[in-house]
Amino acid sequence: MALQVRTALAALGGALVVTAGAVAFAGASAAVGPAPAPIVQIVQAAQATCVTDGNGFCTVTHALGKVPEAVVVSANTPGPFNAFMLNTVQGSFTATTFQVRAMFTQTAPKTFGQIWFTYAAYGAAAPPPTTVTTTPTTPPASTTPGMTTPTTPTTAPSAGT
Question: What are 50-105's pLDDT values in tens digits?
Fold first, then answer.
């Protein structure tokens, strides 16, 4: 019986230590969100198709509206023996197009063939608009020569009246 009591007390003590450690760890964390704040990007995703040239290249038109920071492509192969690798071409990104290259192997391009794929073009977010606030200034007092401010004469009360 004493062994069962000691085992139960040991288990209870271990549970208390684990709980206390979790509470201490949770209390030490003051994180509210990611730091620095994540940058929201502009994304344009679409399905595309084109016919490659004699070297396996194809130019794709996109509607991102700016030069993409990155383009991710994924080949869609309609048949079991039509597999090809698809990559974007380094340095080909413009504000309206980018190039892809389809390859059967590392040295054999898919030439003069139709390819189907999806892509996602990522552009950096535009910086938030800056607002300039101006405070109205009061015009200075008139300093035109010959202009004086009219004064009203005052009389002091007499002491014995």
Answer: 999 999 999 999 999 999 999 999 999 877 767 899 999 999 999 999 999 999 99
Q: What is the 3-state secondary structure (H, E, C) of the chain?
A: CHHHHHHHHHHHHHHHHHHHHHHHHHHHCCCCCCCCCCCCCEEEEEEEEEECCCCCEEEEECCCCCCCCEEEEEEECCCCCCCCEEEECCCCCCCCEEEEEEECCCCCECCCCEEEEEEEEEECCCCCCCCCCCCCCCCCCCCCCCCCCCCCCCCCCCCCC
* Residues ≥6 apart with Cβ < 8 Å to 51: 58, 112, 113, 114, 115
pTM confidence score? 0.55
> Is the C-alpha dihedral spanning 14, 17, 23, 25 positive or negative?
negative
Asked if 76 contacts 103 with a C-beta cutoff of 8 angstroms, the reply is no
